[in-house]
Amino acid sequence: MKKWISSCLWLLMLCSCSYDNINYTYTLQSVDAFLRYELDSDVKMPLVVRTCMGNNDYLYFQNDVWPELLIYDLPNGSLVKRTRFEVEGSNAIQGGFLHGYMMTDCNRIYISGEADGRIYETDTTGCIKNEIRFGESENGYRLLSCFSDNGKMELIDGKLYLPQSLNWQLGDKVMESPLMCCVNMETGNVEPLPINFPQLLKKERVVRGEPTSIVSKYKFCYDGNNFVYSFAYSDELMVVDSKTLDVNYKSGESRYISDIEVPVFRDSDIRNINKKLCEYPAYDNILYDNENRVYYRIVYVPQEMEENVDLISMIRGGRKLFSIMIYDENFNVIGENLFPEYTYNPRLSFVYKGSLYISTNHVMSPDYSDDILSFQKMNLVKL
Which CATH number fits domain 2-382: 2.120.10.30, 3.40.30.10, 3.90.1510.10, 1.10.274.10? Predict the structure, then answer.
């Protein structure tokens, strides 16, 4: 393992030295400008942040695993609303929720309940306005609640699109799980979309509850026309036309990864598993910048973790070292930036008014604070 890491780090340095030989045309440049949001003492540092744009622009997130959303004015950082939802009774989101939420404005928030296969339409008062059952489609397919951080739900032309995870109810056909389902908010009709997980790993090696199931890990974004998927262990982006559902794969590997592969775990020791998850290269979130018409893709490059590091915090908080790839509107790679170690948390990032904002809340940073959620501005610059 150490030999593999050393070889990858050598390759990383080699690629860094040969940067001038790569025909990149854009780069990200950090700016001395920050967006900051104060956190109360009972608010946990979020695992995911989301934005809502309209007459007013908001940043919002869930308070750890609690059924509570915090909504901030995005540009000025003030807390607009802190809404705690009931989980029992007539005005309740049964069983609470985790990651499965999105807001279009303060009057419309959609939440996927964990326990009962329902979509709840609510608002910042916490009042339930409408419920739609989506646990089973008309053809009998059983759908999953949105409890992973694959990406936020999308409301498009009166239809709510919900990301799906591996559906173990399919047994041997688990890799045929749909990536997304669609709920018609007017009729209540529910259907799984014919978009399946790519065959990145032989299905006999995908075991429920085992580390190999991380092959299904993905993030996606919506660019106004396409759903764009970034799978953790695939160089390719999967681009799905939101109207025709046609699927295309776009190549574009990171210059820091010579050969992406799914980690194989032959050790039951949880620390060794987590260490491998931290050290192996992988792709993560994908974000769309509609002003510059580019995509940003997070890349965890090969790295070696120190023995005294809290590995769970690294997995939850952006690892040690990462780069960001830049794709143009045709999915050509036009740039890639390697960021300094233990400085930023790329899991917490968003695009706002033509700039990328990345959280400076890395737990290993000497400036880390639980009291302030902070983002630094990154501008896209032509070389």
Answer: 2.120.10.30
